[in-house]
Amino acid sequence: MTTPQCSERVYINQGNLPLLDMIPDGTGTRALDCGCGGGDNAKIMMSRGWEVSGVTVSENERSLASDYCEKVYVFDLNHGIPEEAGSGYDLVLMSHILEHLINPDQLLQDAKRVLNRAGVIAVALPNVLYYSQRIKFLLGRFEYQEGGIMDRTHLRFYTFTSGSRLLCRNGYSVLRSGVHGNFPLWKLRRLLSKRFEQSLNRLACSFSPNLFGLQSLYVASPIPENAE
Fold first, then answer.
1. Cα separations (Å) of 223 from 36, 67, 92, 119, 227?
2. CA distance 193 to 27
3. What is the per-residue pLDDT for 34?
4. Does the pLDDT value for residue 214 go beyond 60?
5. Residue-level pLDDT at 5
6. Domain-by-domain residue ranges, the chain?
7. In CATH, 17-227 is 3.40.47.10
8. Most buried by CB count within 10 Å: which residue of 26, 128, 139, 147?
9. Tell me: the pLDDT tens digits for 121-148?
10. Nearest-CA neighbor of 148 among 163, 133, 135?
11. pTM of the model
């Protein structure tokens, strides 16, 4: 096992519901969460009947994620998936992790090794062409932040389109894809019903995913080698 460069940063959030909701029913019950953070996605998945193992580079995150994961491996995903994680998974989850890696292709290739024959990956990537980020670029601002699209630990930037290409060139067939974001209503938001606002957001994201999508979402399966 490669000794990881342990991170002091701890990622805690509410979990990525839009991505988890995209996973087809009947996919299975055994999952590996690559970049599990404090276990927020694992907590939701556990409530849905999944048995989740996690991988993180942080000892602090392992302590938190252990409440929701069967096992948590401290490992640097720049080197792929640890052998100790085993194989036979129905799902490999990669929620906002590929953009942090020096070589995301290696993790995508390694995921094939640990999936079972019918297994899938679920991937979320930040969309660098989100409308508010475009405005910043137009104003000449290319500034890293402590979180979000321009997180200081992001090594790569993706759009909805380039994210799909990333998966395809690594031998995956995209089964489901979409974005989660919103239409810029600003103060008008207060005047609209929640249902109308949600409908408008869905319409905008469908019409122009690279403009209105804050994050790009994909479910994909490995293409059998004899079919490539």
1. 25, 34, 15, 11, 7
2. 35
3. 98
4. yes
5. 46
6. 17-227
7. no
8. 128
9. 999 999 999 999 999 999 999 999 988 9
10. 133
11. 0.89
